[in-house]
Amino acid sequence: MSTVATSHSTPQAAAQPGRPTNANTAVPKIAQTSPHTLSQKRARSALRAVAGSLPVRIGTTTPICNVLFGADVHQGGHRLLPDADELAEVLLDLAVPHEDINALVRMGRRVSDDPELSRILEGAVAELVRGLGEIRGGADLPQLDWPSGALQRCFPVYVFVAALPHVRTHHRERGIPADVSRRTLADLGRNMAVHRRRYGTAGVQAPRWLTLHFRGELYQLGRLQFQRAPLGQRTSAALAAAGLDAAPGTPCLNLHIPDFLGPLSPGACDRSLALATEFFAGHYPDETYSVAACHSWLLDPQLKRHLPAQSNVIRFQERFRIAHEDTEPADTEPVQFVFGNPDLPVAELPRRTSVERAVGDHLRAGGHWYIGHGWFPLQGK
Asked: In the chain, which ranges are continuous DSSP H helix?
């Protein structure tokens, strides 16, 4: 059911300290998303630092994108972003909400025409596609310190659009089917729909989460999304206790549940898991995935006290063996995914569905919700 989405980056992926590096010359990070913002002055300094670290000097005749991408995207009038007509079509392909298209096209012209914004965009795309396909747990994108609030909220859209040629090339090299590629990248539009539902404005709700999709680290296969990720310490220990040989860092598939995609029925989940088994064996034969994991409030055992045993949520939960449970409350997690806004007052939470009643009534009674961490062996492994 769409009201119980867990489409966000997982603790396991985010917590891994060692990220693979590109075998070629590494491109330094230009900016980090949090807690700082990227001002125009800092952008110029960062780009100069990048230029100084690369094997080719970058000047007025050698755009930074020549060295970062191996091609001159400016020659012949070409730019990182498509023209206005094509940009609108690309945004529609990415499922961007229709009411946001016109404003994004207008701001896109500004991004392309402003030298400062163009340089920031080039650096952001460079960071996003660095080591494309490697398991890094996503990438950090710059956060603009810019007068336009709308441009601040929407700048990641232009980063993802500008990166599309690289992403599609990577998908073709891996033989990723066009429908899987399209549905995976369309999570950008879903994320923008969540932002508009929550705040009433255009924007990208979770830019770093979406970098997983555009880096080839996550794919949507039917009802579920599957993230290529390393096993964490505690989940690995749980597998070892069950007699399985799975050291920390062993590849696993982290499961996510996207919003706005219908019921989380057992049949839909079975189909997704079957698709995933075939997909990763065929397109990532160099990686072995024998375990699926999930890190979500949906795995909080307390839900069994509030929902029927045959409910979709409980049947999903019962697929997993619990690896460990958090001890710190995460009350805003179910509130934001069930009701759309983590800041809603508990006393005012609606009681329209069984899940709404379970989440709200438990909180109103003074209880707390926790993130659960679970795993199960993939079929045939």
From this structure: 11-15, 40-53, 64-69, 84-93, 98-113, 115-129, 149-174, 178-185, 187-199, 207-214, 233-241, 266-283, 312-317, 332-339, 354-364
CATH topology of domain 222-381: Aminopeptidase (3.40.630)
Distance in angstroms (rounded) separating the CA atoms of residues 164 and 185:
9
Contact yes or no for 125/159 (Cβ under 8 A): yes
pTM for this prediction: 0.80
Q: What share of the chain is helix, strand, coil (3-state, %, to 5)?
A: 50, 10, 40
Whether residue 372 contacts residue 301, with contact meaning beta carbons closer than 8 Å, is answered with yes
pLDDT band at residue 48 under the 50/70/90 scheme:
very low
8 Å CB contact between 307 and 301: no
Among all chains, which residue has been given the structure tokens 């705040």? 199
Confidence (pLDDT) at 230: 97
Q: Are the C-beta atoms of residues 221 and 272 closer than 8 Å to each other?
A: yes
In 3D, which of 338, 368, 342, 337 has the Cα closest to residue 351? 338
Q: Would you say the C-alpha torsion 198, 265, 262, 14 has a positive or negative sign?
A: positive
Task: Tokens 């696993």: give the residue.
Answer: 252
| Vertex 95 angle, CA 91 and 96, to 5° | 55
Q: Is 16 helix (H, G, I), strand (E, B) or coil?
A: coil
Rounded to an integer, what distance in angstroms lies between the CA atom of residue 2 and that of residue 165? Answer: 31
Q: At what angle are helices 207-214 and 178-185 packed, to 10 degrees?
A: 170
Alpha carbons 372 and 317: distance in angstroms, whole number:
10
Domain-by-domain residue ranges, the chain?
32-217, 222-381
Return the amino acid letter for 213.
H
pLDDT (tens digit, 9 = 90+) per residue, 67-102? 333 333 343 345 799 999 999 999 999 999 999 999
Question: Taking a C-beta distance cutoff of 8 angstroms, is the pair 132, 170 a contact?
Answer: yes
The three-point CA angle 9-13-17 to 5° equals 135
Q: Tell me, what DSSP letter sits at residue 36?
A: -
State which amino acid sits at residue 335.
Answer: V
